[in-house]
Amino acid sequence: MTATIQRKQRTSAPPRTRLPVSNFAAKTTMAVTGLIFVGFVFVHMYGNLHIFRGQEEFDHYAHWLREILMPLMPYAGVLWVLRVVLLISLVLHVGCGLLLWTRARRARGPFKRTGLRRGDALMARSMLGTGLVILLFVIFHILDLTLGVQPAASGAFESGSAYANLVASFQRPVVALFYMLTMLVLTVHVAHGTWTAANDLGATGRRLRQLAAWVAGLVAIAICLGNISIPVLVLLGVIQ
Amino acid sequence: MKLTLKVWRQESGAEEGHFEEYLLEEVGPEFSLLEALDKLNDDLVARGEEPIAFDSDCREGICGACGVTVDGTPHGPQKNTPSCRQHLRSFEDGATVQLEPFRSGAFPVVKDLAVNRSALDRVIGAGGFVSTSVGTAPDADAIPVTHEAAEWALDLAACIGCGACVAACPNGSAQLFAGSKTMHLATLPSSSKERGRRAKGITRAAEEEFGPCSVYGECAEVCPAGIPLTAIAGLNKEKLRQVLRNKDD
Amino acid sequence: MTASSTTQPQALLDELRTVGSGLPGLSSDVPPSQTWADRRLHYRMVGPLNRRKFTVVVVGTGLAGAGAAAALGELGYNVESFTFHDAPRRAHSVAAQGGINAARARTVDNDSIARFVKDTVKGGDFRGREADAWRLAEESIRVIDHMNAIGAPFAREYGGGLATRSFGGVQVSRTYYTRGQTGQQLQVAAAQALLRQVSTGQVNLHTRTEMLDLIVVEGRAQGIVVRDLVTGKISAVTGDAVVLATGGYGNVYYRSTLAKNSNVTAAFRAHRRGALFANPCFIQFHPTALPVSSEWQSKTTLMSESLRNDGRIWVPVKAGDGRPPNEIPEDERDYYLERRYPAFGNLTPRDVASRAARTEIDAGRGVGPLKNSVYLDFRDAIERLGRRVIAERYGNLFEMYSDATGEDPYEEPMRIAPGAHFAMGGLWSDYDMMTSIPGLFVGGEAGWGYHGANRLGANSLLSACVDGWFTLPYSVPNYLAPLLGRPKLSPDDDVVRAAVAEAEAGVQALVAIGGTQGPERFHRRLGDLLYEKCGVTRTAEGLAEGLRGIRELRREFWIDLRVQGRPDGFNQELERAGRVADYLDMAELMCLDALDRDESAGAHFREEHQTEGGEAQRDDEHWLFASAWERADSGEAGETGPRYIRHQEPLEFPSVPPETRDYR
C-alpha cells in the first residue's frame, strides 16, 4: 500500500458531489438554531404557566404577546419576527440535521453499531426520531391552537379565546396524551441537543462542561414538567 | 476453558465476507484475546486451514495496531482496553464470542479482521504536526510550561491511534481522534503557533474521511487511552476560533 | 562434514569461522570529544538546489527512521519511506516507557557531557565506540529541544521547567520523560513530523510494505526490493542511498519485550548482501520484564525500569519458600541487589540486575508458580510516599501489570524476570553510520556503536533520535555529494530485475516446502533454545550445543515448513516464515559470536570468565575490539550452514580509561 497520504482512498463522497456545507458549519448551525428553540420552548413553557392564574390572565397574556413593543412595532410585529426567526431556524435545523444524518450513515458504512453502552448514545441515536415527532407535533399544535383548523382543533375553537381553546383541546384525551408523550420526547431531544450544542460550540473547560450538562438536564426536565402539568390538570378537571 | 469463536472471514477488500465458527479448546482465563487467536491460528495451520489475519504488534496496548470488534464492541468487553489487553476471563466458559473487524466506512477490510486505517494518518498529515524544522527549536527550558498544561496535554496525547473511536461511533466519526490531537498541540506553547491553520486542516480532512459527531460518547467508552470526551468539544472550539479569527495562529 | 558431528566447541568454532582482517577503526587525530565537530566541518555538502536530485530510501519509521526521513525531507531530498506497519506511528519505538537521557546538566547534581560519556561507555563495559558516545551526549541536548518543539509533552516541574528522573547505572538525574509513555510521545511526534513531509510531497510513504532485499550495484547500495504486504506484489525501489532504521533483533528469542512483528529481516538481508554485522551476541536482558507464566503467553512484557526507583527487589532467603510474599517476614527476605551493590542498590545497570536475578532463580529462590521470577516490592514506597504519589508515578504500569497478571501490585509485590530486550549489536557502521556497503546507512537499534556490550536505560530513545535527526542528515549528504550528476539506477536495470526475481523465488521457495508446521512453531523452539544456550549466562559447551540445535532446527525448517495461504495477497504466515528463516541464521550468528568472544563483557556473560565475586570479567588484552562478521558463503540452506569471517575494529578509550565496572 503506497503513499497513505494520497486521497484516492477517500471513503465519504468527494467534496465536489457534496453540498458546499461543511459538517462543522452544519453542526454549528444546528447548535445555534437548537439553542434558539430551547430558549423558545422554555419561554413558551413559562408563558403557558399563566394558565394557573386563570382565564383572564391567560387570555391577557396571549393578547399581550401581540402588543409587545407597540407602538414601536405594529400589532403582532414582534410575534411575527419571532415566527420568522423560528421558521428559518426550523428549516436550517431540519435541513442540517438530515444532511448530517445522511453523511453519518455513509461514513458509518453498512454495519449498524450495536450494543451502545451509554445513556447519551441512546439519546443521540433517537435524535432523528424524536425530532420528527416534535416536527409533527408542532404542525399539529399550530393547526390546533393557532390556526384552529379542523380536525386538529377542537370543535369549540374560537380565535382569541386562548384559554378556552386550550382547555377544549386538552379535554380530548387523545390530544392530551399525544401532547404529554411529545413532551417526554422533547425532554430527550432538548437534553441531548443542549449538551451537544455545548460540545459543538466548544465547551472544553471542566466546570463549563459540568454546568452545560446540568443546564441541559434541568432545562429539559423543567420544560417537560411545566408543560405536562397543564394537560394533566385539565384532564383531572382542575383547569376548566 | 472452551470458547466458540464466530469469526469474520473475508479474503480481501474486494470480496464478500462471512462468519465462520471455530471451537477453541484448552485455553485459560489468563489468555489474552489475541493469544487465544494465536492458539486458534496454530490449530488452523496444523489442520491445514488458513489462519485468521489480524493486526497486532506490541501486545501491551501502546502501538494501536490491534483492533477487533468483540460481540459488537470495538476492542472488547473490558472498557477502555485495547484488544491485546482483553482477557478471556471476561467470558464465561463455553460462551460464543463473535469477532469482527473494526466496522466503519472509512476502514475498508484488508483481510479477515485486519482493516485499513490510513484515513487516520491523512487527518494527521492535514495539520496534526508542528512546522518546526529539525535544529531550529529553542531551548525547551526557556519556555516554561505549567505542570498542569503538560499533564493535560499528555492526557490528550495518550491517543494510540487504534481507530476504536471511529469503529464505536454510530456516525463513523473520528472526532475524538482528531480532537485529541488538535487540543494536545493547542495546549502546548511550542505547538500553538499554528492553531488556526491546524484546526482548519484537521477539520477539513476529518470531514472528508469520516462522519460528523453527534456526541454519542461511545468513543470515550472504548478508547484504550482514556481520551476524555472533552476532546470532541476541543476540535469544535479550535475550529470555531479559527473561523472567528481567520488567522494562522 | 556437517556441524552436528563436531563435538568440541573450539573445533566447531574453527569450522564455522575464520578470522579476517582488522577494520581501520576510527582513524582520527582529534580527541573523541572533538570528533563530531571535526567531522561535520569536513563533511562534503549538497547545495539546496541540488538536493532534489537525490533520492534516499529510508526503511523503518521508528524514531531513527522517521527522524531521518523527516529531516532529509526538510533539507530538500526526495525520500522514499517504508514501514511494514499500517501507520508510521506504530514502529516499536512507541513502546519505550521510561524516558530519554540528555546531558543537559541543568541541575547541580554534577552531570555533564563528559559524565554522560563516562556512564555510557562504562555502562557498555568498554565495547562501544567512545567517539560515538560523545556525539550521543552532545546532540542529546538538541534532541530534547527538538522533540519538545514538535509536540512531545515532556513532564514539567511546577515552575515550568523540564522534569527529570534517575535511571539504572547512573548517579545523576538526566532522564526526561512523559509519564510511562516517553517512547510513545516521541514516536508520535516523529511520525507527525514525517507525515508533515509526506503532505508536502517531499517524502513518499509506503505503509504495509516490507523490505526483502538490498540492491547493490557497482559496490554501492542503490535500492531495495520490497513486498507490498496487501497485494503480495514484489517490486524494487531505487535511490542514491539507503538508510536502514529497522530496529533490533531481540525477537529472535521469540518471547521478548519487543513487539510481535519486530524482526531482523531487513538488516539481515543487507548482511547477506555483504554488510558486516557487529557484536551480534550483545543482547540485553531487561531485568523488569513479566515472567513467562503460560505456554501461549505471547511476550515478556516490559515493565519500565523506572519502577526500580521506588520498588525493592527481593527473593525469599529460603529456597523453595512457597509462602505468599506478604507472609514472609522482613528478616526472611533477601534484598539481594541492595546487599550486593550497596552504592547503586536497586538501580544497578540492567545486565547486572538481570544476572543477579538469574543467579537467585537458578539457586531455587525464584518465586511464582513456575519459580522463574523475583519480587519487585512497592510496600515500603507506598508507606513512605503514599499510594497517590506511587499511582501518579507508575499508575499506568501498575494497571498494565494487573491487566496482564490479574494481581494488584498495590497489595502484593510484582513478579519480574529477565526478558530479552535490546540488541546492542547490529549492522556494523563507521562513525558516519555507514555500513561496510557504501551508500547503506544504519540508524537506531539496527546499528551498533553507542551502547557497547550493555545499554543504559533511556539511552535507546536517545540514540535513535540522535541518529535520525542529528547524524544521518549530516552524514548521508557527505556520501551523496560526489555522486551529483550520476544517473539514478533505473528500476528496469537488469540487476534490479534480477534482485526482484530472486526475492520472488525466495518467497516461492518458502511456499514450496509444503511441510506440516507453521513458522511460529519453529520460532518458539528457536526461542526456547536460545534462552537456554545463549541467554543471560553462556558457556562454550552450551553455545556449541546451541549451534548444533539451531542447525538441526534450520534443517527441519527447510523440510517441514508449512506456509498456509497464497503468496499473492495479505498473508501473515508468509511474513512470519520469511522472518523466522532469517532468525534461524541470526541465532546461529549470535551463538557463533558468543562462542567466539572468549570473555565476559556487559550483557555477554560467559561463565568461564567471572571474577571471584561473580561479576563479568573482561579480557581487554585480547578482546578490546568490536567483532564485525562477514558472511563468507551461505552454503545450502538445508544442509551445511553458512560460514563466516570475523573482522575486528579495534576500540580505543582515550577519555574514559577502561576499568572494571564496580557498582558496589
Describe the protein.
The complex is a heterotrimer of chains A (240), B (249) and C (664). Chain A is an all-alpha fold. Chain A has one domain: Up-down Bundle (3 helical TM bundles of succinate and fumarate reductases). Chain A has 8 helices and no strands. The radius of gyration of chain A is 21 Å and the shape is globular. Chain B has 249 residues and is α+β, with helices and mostly antiparallel strands. Chain B has a 5-stranded mixed β-sheet with strand order 2-1-5-3-4. In chain B, strands 6-7 form a two-stranded antiparallel sheet. In chain B, strand 6 and strand 7 form a beta hairpin. With 664 residues, chain C is of the alpha+beta class. Chain C folds into 3 domains: 177 residues, Fumarate reductase/succinate dehydrogenase flavoprotein-like, C-terminal domain (Methane Monooxygenase Hydroxylase, Chain G, domain 1, Up-down Bundle); 300 residues, FAD/NAD(P)-binding domain (3-Layer(bba) Sandwich), CATH 3.50.50; 136 residues, Succinate dehydrogenase/fumarate reductase flavoprotein, catalytic domain (Flavocytochrome C3, Chain A, domain 1, Alpha-Beta Complex), CATH 3.90.700.10. Chain C contains 17 helices and 21 strands. In chain C, strand 2, helix 3 and strand 3 form a beta-alpha-beta unit. At the B-C interface, helix 1, helix 2, helix 3 and helix 5 of B face helix 3, helix 5, helix 6, helix 11 and helix 12 of C.
